[in-house]
Amino acid sequence: MLKAFLASIAFLAPALLLYSPEALAQGSQKSDAANQAPARTSARAFDPHDLSGVWEHEGIGGSIASGPVSPMTPWGQAKFDAAKPGFGPRRVPPTEDNDPVLICDPQGFPRAMSLENPEPMEFIQIRGRILQFMEWNHNWRTIWIDGRDLPKDLQATWYGYSVGKWEGDALVVRTAGLDERTWLDPLGHPHSDALRVEEHYRRVNRDTMEFTMKVDDPKAYTSPWMLVKMKVLKLNPKYEIQEAICAPSDEKNFNKDITIPADTIGTAK
Predict the structure, then answer these.
(1) DSSP assignment, residue 28?
(2) For residues 189 and 183, what is the distance between their CA atoms, to the nearest angstrom?
(3) Beta bridge partners of 202
(4) Mean pLDDT for the stretch of residues 219-235
(5) Helix, strand or coil for residue 246?
(6) Closest C-alpha among 141, 133, 120, 134 to residue 58
(7) Dihedral of CA 155/185/190/104: which sign?
(8) pLDDT value of residue 266
(9) Helix, coil or strand: residue 6
(10) Is omega for the bond preceding 237 within 30 degrees of 0, making it cis?
(11) Span 126-155, pLDDT tens digits
(12) Per-residue pLDDT for 22 more than 50?
């Protein structure tokens, strides 16, 4: 019993010290000092040129561009008319949907960064490069920040070729060399291999980043337009990127078990 009592005294001693007159006086001084210092000081403890970390889209995204879509050229209109999206005002039954992602084609760029996607992404900064690691399909994207310019002759790829530079506290990224098989959004807005994309990233505080994206495709649209007028990304330091793979076998089973039966019910009605 005595042993337990002594142990309890030893355990409580630091706490009792906190309530001694001397400790209370010191605590009051610290409290006064804290009140004199701006509470937002810790919130400012970040490097605006460091985008590292896992970022999540605020809200659940959206449908399409946050700005008006530019009028399409005849080529662009023909491509748009050929698209049969299962989303939006032109939606078709699931079995008629020809969205490329439904056969597990990559979302590609810029769709991977458009308003529809709520999936997290991680920014990783290394010498001369910023990497974007996207949860959906575990796709990697490289943004070169070593001073190079966009190459003149580019072979079209799903995510293109990206170069960036800092303009003040904003990272400005230009991308070209994009495969025209991808859609810009789930509504089926097309693009050609002439597409050029400009992104702006700005970390406004430790936990918040603003993002905009402009597209310029003279083959598909009559003028440049904002695919993303403004998106807010939030830092989640406790999150780890998960595996979210679009496997063709899984997609086939999903269509057999869910999509086709749902389409049949809808047709019967």
Answers:
(1) H
(2) 6
(3) 170, 210
(4) 95
(5) coil
(6) 120
(7) positive
(8) 56
(9) helix
(10) no
(11) 999 999 999 988 889 999 999 999 999 999
(12) no
Burial class (CB in 10 A: 0-12, 13-18, 19+), 251: middle
Rounded CA-CA distance 10/265 in Å is 72
Sequence-ordered strand ranges (E) for the chain: 53-57, 121-126, 129-134, 139-144, 161-167, 170-176, 196-205, 208-216, 225-235
- The C-alpha atoms of residue 188 and residue 64 are separated, in whole angstroms, by 10
In 3-state terms, what secondary structure has residue 39?
A: helix
User: Residue 122 forms beta bridges with which residues?
Assistant: 54, 133
**Residue pLDDT, tens place only, 30-66:** 344 444 444 444 456 899 999 999 999 886 444 455 5
Helix axes 2-18, 21-36, angle to 10 degrees: 40
Residue 235 φ/ψ, nearest 5 degrees: -70, 135
Alpha-carbon span 200 to 45, nearest angstrom: 22
Give the helix, strand, coil percentages of the chain, each rounded to 5: 30, 25, 45
Which two three-digit tokens encode residue 254?
Answer: 């999903």
Contact 202, 24 (CB under 8 A): no
Tell me the HSE value of 177 on the side-chain side, using a 13 A CA sphere.
15
Q: What phi, psi does 27 have (nearest 5°)?
A: -60, -40
3-state SS class at 36? helix
Q: What is the pLDDT of residue 62?
A: 42
CA atoms within 13 A on the CB side of 231: 30
Provide the greatest CA pair distance for the chain: 92
Do residues 228 and 113 lie in contact, with contact meaning Cβ atoms separated by under 8 Å? Answer: yes
- Assign 26 to helix, strand or coil: helix
